[in-house]
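FW: tagging you since you asked about this chain on Friday. Here's the raw sequence from the shared folder, copied in full. Didn't touch anything.
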Amino acid sequence: MLIDTHCHLDAAEFDGDRAAVHAAARAAGVGCIVVPAVAVDGFAQTKSVVAAHAGCVAAYGIHPLYVTAANEADIATLRRWLAAERPVAVGEIGLDFYTGDEDRARQEWFFAEQLALAREFDLPVILHVRRAVDRVLWHLRRSGVRGGIAHAFNGSRQQADEFIRLGFVLGFGGAATFSGSTRIRALAAALPAEAIVLETDAPDIPPAWLDGSRNSPAELPRIAAEIAALRGVAPAELAAATAANARRVLSLPG
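HL: got it, structure written out here
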């Protein structure tokens, strides 16, 4: 069984054919899909989608690119959802310093508050990290959270080793299918088997063969085959190892 550890099945891009997308993924061997929310006003949609589709599980959090529209009261709302729903993780949370003109202090405040909630509820976190790896690691060292997933990892080997030391596994998906993604492909090939999980980030980060069109969780088997080839192992071996890692870190049922 394959586990897609990061798929926005609740996104508007799937409103027209969500059931078919889910069915195609199940038919392809994707037995579990982790659906991370990105904003408080989308929590109900995430819950509804997960409840309606077998094998889907939810995470709740406020994405760093959505904090400009959030307010401090959203942290209290998130606390109530975590208490009531007991999701598999707090996420998608983190830092995104890609543009250079973002409100970094605001992002860091929401990130630190959500890490505190993760520790309060003893939940792992699903991290969004873009051009902010060292700052995310700084917050993690201070937070004492019990680990989680660094989604769409694109840091150095030294940074990867530090995430692993802190109890995290690293997510690899469509970006690893591009021949030009040399650093990501080298990491996907060389990291310990117990340190990686698979993801699509659908509808985003489409693999090379989709030529920029909408991604879907049904692409995960082919993504897995590409990463297995990089590692020199059989796809079934990679699927088993990465599924075990996801179950361990997110406390998913076997």
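FW: The chain has a mean pLDDT of 98.
HL: agreed, and The chain has nine helices and eight strands.
FW: great, closing this out.
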